[in-house]
Every structure is written in C-alpha cells, then in structure tokens.
Amino acid sequence: MIGNAFTFWLYMAIAITALLFVWKKVPETKGKTLEEIHNSL
After folding, report:
1. Could you tell me how far CA 41 lies from the centroid of its own chain?
2. Which candidate in 15, 21, 36, 39 could, as Cys together with 32 as Cys, close a disulfide (CB 3.0–4.6 Å)?
3. How far lies 37's CA from each of 9, 19, 29, in Å?
4. Can you give the pLDDT of all 41 residues of the chain as single tens digits?
C-alpha cells in the first residue's frame, strides 16, 4: 500500500515541478499594460 510518507514526497515532487514550470514558462506581466500583454501574445 501507499504510505503517508510516499504521498507527501509525491505531492512535493509535483509541487516543485509546477513551480519550475511557472518560473520558466509563464511570462512576467508586472508593470505592463493590458495592451503590452496582448501584443506580446
């Protein structure tokens, strides 16, 4: 069976993967207008 520790480590691995994805792939929009964001797509 899957233990509590394995469940925690699996959740941590998924969370770190999600964090790295957002850090690398999601563009920064701080300080940009809606027009600048729209034009960059």
Report:
1. 19
2. 36
3. 37, 22, 7
4. 678 899 999 999 999 999 999 999 998 899 999 999 899 87
